[in-house]
Structure formats: structure tokens, C-alpha cells
Design goal:
The complex is a heterohexamer, with two copies of chain A (about 100 residues), two copies of chain B (about 130 residues) and two copies of chain C (about 120 residues). Chain A is an alpha/beta fold and about 100 residues long. Chain A has a single domain, classed as 3-Layer(aba) Sandwich (Hypothetical Protein Ychn, Chain: A). Helices cover about 25% and strands about 25% of the residues of chain A. Chain A is built from three helices and five strands. A five-stranded parallel beta sheet of chain A has the order 4-3-2-1-5. The longest helix of chain A is centred in the last third of the chain and has 10 residues. By secondary structure, chain B is α/β, with parallel strands linked by helices. Chain B has one domain: Hypothetical Protein Ychn, Chain: A (3-Layer(aba) Sandwich). Chain B is about 35% helix and about 20% strand. In chain B, helix 2 links the parallel strand 2 and strand 3. In chain B, helix 1 runs parallel beside helix 2. Chain C is α/β, with parallel strands linked by helices and about 120 residues long. Chain C has a five-stranded parallel beta sheet with strand order 4-3-2-1-5. In chain C, strand 3, helix 3 and strand 4 form a beta-alpha-beta unit. The relative contact order of chain C is 0.27. Classes of the chains: A alpha/beta (about 100), B alpha/beta (about 130), C alpha/beta (about 120). Chains B and F meet through helix 3 of B and helix 3 of F.
Chain lengths: ~100, ~130, ~120, ~120, ~100, ~130
């Protein structure tokens, strides 16, 4: 029950893939900052994992991305939702 | 719940500081407590008293200071990371015979143990890297 | 042979690179230099429309982008494969850009006396 | 359930991350916490033998690495796929490490109350 | 006749591959700092290009790497050799 | 030949500063001239008068200063990048009503035009990024 945050673009570096090596089935992955590009339909993390996927709304907006451009199955959360996720999950692990 | 926040990115270079600040506000808005914000690596530059951003940009050190004062949050800067990067309080300036100090009011220099302690004492420790 | 080529490879917002590279472009033009820009890799994300950087408390680069033409910076290239990979279309960008193929990239760099690369 | 896991993912020398993550490990242990380390990705390069950081004017991490056992930091894991990809052998590292498979990584993280990740 | 320098690990990010998109036949690529890992036999830039390859000796040593671990066809240079390369090539383009 | 060097990485965080410094020494050893070292982005932190590294580590701002003094090299820090990050000379400290300044002796704050100019004036401009 760990919430992983990832703030790097999957198009440029390995951070998200390294994160996904360590995730368990009950974990969550929150994409934020430049990590939100990993939510695009055109982004392909090496494996589809059984984690729950989230993406930070404010960071999508800041970059001109819409929810419609995101892969199916990703939940869009705002900062309040980010806090709620940190309540739900037992700890937070940041990948940068 | 009791939170602490770790910031590893420098202001005006990486978004990490902004993200951490918005997260901190949202944590407080939810009625949680923030015990401490710990600044490490380039995050220590957040503690500078001398930043002078353009008028239409946020003064991040002062934003932290105001948030901390209003909500009883400790702003702790890793002393080892700070001193080597040129962020000094008056004591350290004296110790190293430097002509001045530049740590913003409301921040304190302390050891990395304060980061370990935050992880132990708090229900959640959330880190923001560059 | 143009004077300066500036390559933009970092996404916007996440770091200050986009702003600082644009600053250099505008200053270079103000110094009377012929400045060309190339957006490639994640740098093409800087060309996305409808960016709202104030959502994360930042100023963004849109005003500077719009200023480019006033500084006579008109040779603006975007790497088409980088757009494709990211699902972006060359006709839906925030400024007018000339698509450039991978094959033409080496020639573009050789045409400039000085290449800055951010 | 151990207290702290620190993940090392950055190469040595190029940045201060290796040193600053090791600092945290030693301080954590000095605070009486049970600290485990995991080297993965480019972090496995921190385990290379014969590093001579003075060649580029740096202090390096070898002294701190050797100090780990004095601080009772003995649970040191290295991701075997990361080693393989980089052509490194688990029996030619600068400290004793326990190889760990990709399959076992999620379990390792779950066993720790707090994960730091550099 | 451009000398490109690359300081990022090819195992973690796309910098070297982006550089290689732009190199001409007469260009050189100098691997330095964390870029020197791109000289390893186990490193695979997406395409083999016809550029001249160099790697900075001091950065190899600092990381415990030997010349013997480098791919064939890469020339090892020290800082003095780095300067000579900047004399030979007409300009320098840094990828980071 | 005439060289200039650009440094974009902060000292004590990235190797960029070390690499740039070793390169600069090798350039001078070959009998070339260095007109200017220009500090931009986090490279501006190289100009801090307050860095206090451990005794067994180099004081990078002072190393640059000595190299510059001995060889007639200009050390120019981008003023816009510096001021927002909290690196001020006495003029800027006064302008922004800050309690002190922290620019090391031998460095000067100036505009980004000095980087453009270095590219024009010199035979080679070599950049070192983080």
C-alpha cells in the first residue's frame, strides 16, 4: 500500500519504468510535474501493471493537456485529491 | 494526521518547490498538521533571504515563511548541505569567517537527523525532488 | 549561414530551462544576431496550445513565445518524429513552426556558427 | 519490518546524490534505525570497484561505503537485472551485496516503514 | 565538423540518442561525466553512426571503468585531448 | 585561440563545475586564452562568497577566482538568473532592499548578452550543463 509519485517524462527517461519494477498490486502511481506526460495515450510504460494510476490535474492544465488525452483507467486528481491519496496509502515514495 | 515534507529541488530552477508548496497548502486545508518542512540537496536554496524574483513571480522563501508562521510549521535546512552551498546563519558565518549570513528568518539550520526524525514522528513524509 | 541555433529539448513548466533558453533567444536577437530555434524531443511539449502554467503558480513562456516574431525570430523548426512520438500535430502548435525531418537535422546544425542546446 | 529503506538509483561522481543518500543512511543508523539499502538502475554503478574520483577532483563515496558495516548497515541489496544490463557481476562489487530479483523488489519496499529514493 | 559532448548515462535517458539524431558524418561525440557509461560494450545507442567517438579518460577512472571495457572504435582522451578536439572541430555543442 | 566557457550547473550538486574548471585549466595549459566564464541557470551559485565546503573539498568559487585573476579571465554571472536565485552584489542588494550581498570578489553580474557576445567574439564557446 505505497503511493509512488513520478515527476519525469517517460519519453525521456527511465524513472517511471524503474518505479514500476518496484510496485505491488495494491500500490498507486501518481504522475505529476513532467511525469504527467506518462498519462498520454501515446506513452508506453514497458509493462502494464496492476497498480492504480493517478495524474495530477493542475500539472495537466499547466502543460495544455486535457483529460481526454489520457489513457483509459487513469484517475485525474487535484491537489486535494493528492492529499487524500496520501491519507489512503500507508506511505509515499517519490521517484525523480 | 501529522505530515512532514522534504524538498530537494532549488527554487526558480525546478518545479519541485512549487509542487511541495501547493501540496503543503492542500494538506493544511484538509485539517492536517505539518510538523516540519526539511530542505536538502538544492532544496536548501529555498532558505535564502536574498532571493529577489521579478514582481510577477512568487517569492518562494517568503511564501514558506508565511505558511510556517501561520501554521506552526518548522522550516529546517540541512546544515551540511547548506554550508557547502553557501547558505549560512549568523553562527555558521562566524564559524567560517564569512562576511555575512543569508538564511531567511523563520528557517533554522540543523542536522540530517531531523529528516530521519520526521519520517519516524509523522504519519506521512512526502518528498519532492528536482 | 545563420548565427545562432538554439535547441529546445526540455518540457515546459517542470524546470526553468524553457524560459531561460527563450531569454537567450530574445537577447541574441536583440544583439542583432540571426537566431533560429529547433524544438525536438520533449522540447516539442513547449509548443502545446492552451498551457495554463498559473494552475501551478508559474508564469509560463507563452508571452515570450508570442514575442519571437517581433524579434524577427522566424526560423523555427520542429522535429516531426518527436511530434509524432508524442501524439502531437504540426498544425496544432502555439506558434508557427516548420516541420523538419530527422534526415535534415544534421544539416541544420552545420548551418549555424553557434549551437546552444537546452 | 525494518525501519528505513534507501534506494540508490543515480550513478556516482556526476552528481552529489550518491554522497547525500549515503549521508542519510549513516545518520539514520546513528539515530538507532534499522537501515536497508537497495541499489538499482544506474545506482549499481556506485558499487563499481577501483573508483578514483580524485581524477576529477572529487572525494567519492568509498570511505562512506566502507563505513556502512560499522554502522550495522548489513542489509544491502543490488538489483540483479540492473547489474546484468550494465555488464557488471555481483561478485565484483566494492561492498558485499545481496542480489535481488525484479520479482522480489515489491516485497522489499513493502517491508519498510519509510522509503527514501534518490 | 561539430564536436558534441554528452554527459548523461545512456542507460537512464535519451540524451545520447537525441544527440545522434543531429550528428553529421564529420562530427565527433565526446562522452564525459555520466555520459562515459555510453562507451561500455553493454551500452547500445539506438543506431551506430559514422561519427568519431571519444570518451574522457578522467571520467572513466573516476567511475572505476577501464579502457578495456569500452566498445571498439572509441578513442580515450584526457583533458588535454579534450582541448585538442575543441581545436580540431569548428564548434562544440553540449548535450545535457 | 580565444575560448569562452559557459557553466550551467551548481557547485556541490553537479560535476559540471568541476569539469568546466578542469577543462579551463587544460585550455590555459595549451597556451590558449580564455576571455570569459559565463555562469547561467544554477551555475550562478558558483559566484557565492559564502560557500564553506569541508576542508578536504575544493572551494570552487575561490578556485575560479584564482584562475581568473592569474589569467585575466572575466567571471560573469547572469544578473537575471542570479538575482532571482538570491545571489546579489552590493548594487542589487540595495536595489531590492536586501540586508546584504553575497557575490564573491572577482565576479561581476551582467546581462545574458555577455553569453551571446562570448559566442561571437571567441573562436570557441564550450558549455557545461548539469
Amino acid at each position: 500500500m505505497i503511493l509512488h509519485t513520478v515527476n519525469k517524462s517517460v519519453f525521456n527517461c527511465n524513472t517511471l519504468n524503474e518505479c514500476l519494477l518496484t510496485t505491488a498490486r495494491n500500490d498507486g502511481v501518481l504522475l505529476l510535474e513532467d511525469g504527467v506526460y506518462g498519462a498520454l495515450e501515446t506513452a508506453h510504460p514497458t509493462e502494464i501493471h496492476e497498480v492504480s494510476w493517478y495524474v495530477l490535474k493542475e500539472d495537466l492544465l499547466a502543460r495544455g493537456l486535457s483529460e481526454g488525452q489520457c489513457r483509459e483507467g487513469i484517475t485525474v486528481v487535484d491537489y486535494a485529491g493528492f492529499v487524500e491519496l496520501t491519507e489512503q496509502y500507508k506511505s509515499v515514495c517519490s521517484w525523480f | 494526521m501529522k505530515y512532514s515534507i522534504a524538498v530537494y529541488g532549488g527554487p526558480y530552477s525546478h518545479q519541485a518547490t512549487h509542487t511541495a508548496f501547493h501540496f503543503a497548502q492542500a494538506v493544511l486545508d484538509k485539517g492536517h498538521e505539518i510538523q516540519r518542512v526539511f530542505f536538502y540537496h538544492d532544496g536548501i536554496y529555498n532558505g535564502s533571504a536574498l532571493v529577489a524574483p521579478p514582481q510577477d513571480e512568487a517569492n518562494l522563501p517568503q511564501q514558506w515563511q508565511q505558511l510556517a508562521e501561520k501554521n506552526g510549521v518548522e522550516l529546517v535546512v540541512c546544515i551540511a548541505a547548506a554550508v557547502r552551498r553557501g547558505l549560512l546563519d549568523e553562527n555558521e558565518a562566524k564559524r567560517y569567517s564569512k562576511p555575512g549570513s543569508n538564511l531567511e528568518q523563520g528557517y533554522q539550520l540543523s542536522g540530517l537527523g531531523q529528516l530521519v526524525d520526521a519520517g519516524l514522528e509523522c504519519d506521512r513524509l512526502v518528498s519532492f525532488g528536482p | 549561414m545563420s548565427d545562432i541555433l538554439i535547441i529546445f529539448r526540455k518540457p515546459p513548466v517542470g524546470t526553468s530551462w524553457a524560459r531561460e533558453a527563450l531569454d537567450l533567444a530574445l537577447v541574441g536577437a536583440a544583439f542583432g544576431q540571426k537566431v533560429s530555434l529547433l524544438f525536438m524531443g520533449d522540447g516539442v511539449f513547449q509548443l502545446a496550445q492552451n498551457q495554463q502554467p498559473d494552475a501551478v503558480g508559474q508564469k509560463g513562456t507563452q508571452a515570450m513565445m508570442q514575442a519571437l516574431s517581433m524579434y524577427d525570430i522566424d526560423d523555427i523548426y520542429v522535429h516531426n518524429d518527436s511530434l509524432d512520438t508524442r501524439g502531437m500535430a504540426a498544425d496544432q502548435l502555439n506558434i508557427d513552426c516548420q516541420p523538419i525531418t530527422s534526415k535534415a537535422l544534421p544539416g541544420l546544425l552545420q548551418q549555424h556558427k553557434q549551437v546552444f542546446n537546452f
